[in-house]
Design goal:
Elements: H1 2-18, E1 33-34, H2 50-61, H3 82-85, H4 98-101, H5 117-128, E2 134-135, H6 151-158, H7 160-163, H8 177-186, H9 188-195, H10 215-226
Parallel strand pairs: 1-2
Helix pairs in contact: 2-5
Length: about 230
């Protein structure tokens, strides 16, 4: 009898000790998941963050005014938020995700800046990982701040969909080092206000239009500007 009682007690203890390990998934898939900030922590280091890696691509290359912005709503398609982008995405099923398959052929239209193979692969990886609304607040190395690494990539992902083909939207072209340095260097203080979404800047002029870059990326831009635009 004593052995039976001891065995029962052990089972109860084991069950109780495991109850705290249950992880509840978000009930609302549209709610941002703060990676590493009390939300779902990625099990691998290559988790794609929607807010800093995927959303900027859809906003810059598809969601500009005249196309799929909140204002123009071309064909009633808007690509400036997670909820609206998910209207054309099927998690873990890229072949049935219209907003992925279309960027490999029809869109962006010819004559407009096109996404690179690496950018398309980022979206593909995000879809395969479940197309989650991951929100990474700081996901970069702030000790790096030259144009070649990482400013060129930040411009490509956040700006060149509108400003990557001459003359560029609003006659702003940022497609190479000389042009970016000349434009930003003409008024660096204003540029930093623009990317910081400073309230003194008109909302329509704050960039990127979908929302601020993560703090560490803004920090990289700030260091690049303040250090004299190192290439």
């Amino acid at each position: 009898m004593k052995i039976r009682h001891i065995f029962t007690l052990l089972v109860i203890v084991l069950i109780a000790s495991c109850t705290h390990e249950v992880i509840n998934s978000p009930t609302d898939p549209a709610s941002p998941i703060d990676v590493g900030r009390g939300g779902i922590t990625p099990t691998t280091s290559d988790t794609v963050c929607f807010n800093s890696q995927v959303l900027p691509l859809y906003v810059s290359y598809c969601g500009s005014n005249g196309c799929h912005s909140d204002i123009s709503r071309e064909e009633d398609v808007i690509t400036t938020s997670y909820t609206r982008i998910m209207e054309g995405i099927r998690a873990k099923n890229a072949s049935r995700s219209e907003y992925y398959t279309i960027i490999n052929g029809e869109m962006p239209p010819r004559g407009s800046p096109q996404m690179s193979a690496d950018q398309k692969n980022t979206i593909l990886k995000w879809i395969n990982q479940g197309a989650l609304n991951t929100n990474c607040l700081n996901s970069c190395d702030t000790t790096k701040f030259t144009f070649n690494d990482p400013i060129k990539t930040l411009l490509t992902n956040n700006c060149l969909g509108c400003h990557g083909t001459k003359p560029g939207s609003g006659n702003v072209f940022l497609g190479d080092y000389a042009s970016a340095k000349a434009y930003i260097g003409a008024n660096p203080t204003n540029f930093l206000k623009v990317i910081n979404h400073d309230p003194t800047i008109a909302a329509s002029k704050r960039m990127p239009p979908a929302g601020k870059m993560v703090d560490c990326q803004i920090g990289q831009f700030t260091k690049w500007v303040n250090k004299g635009f190192p290439q």
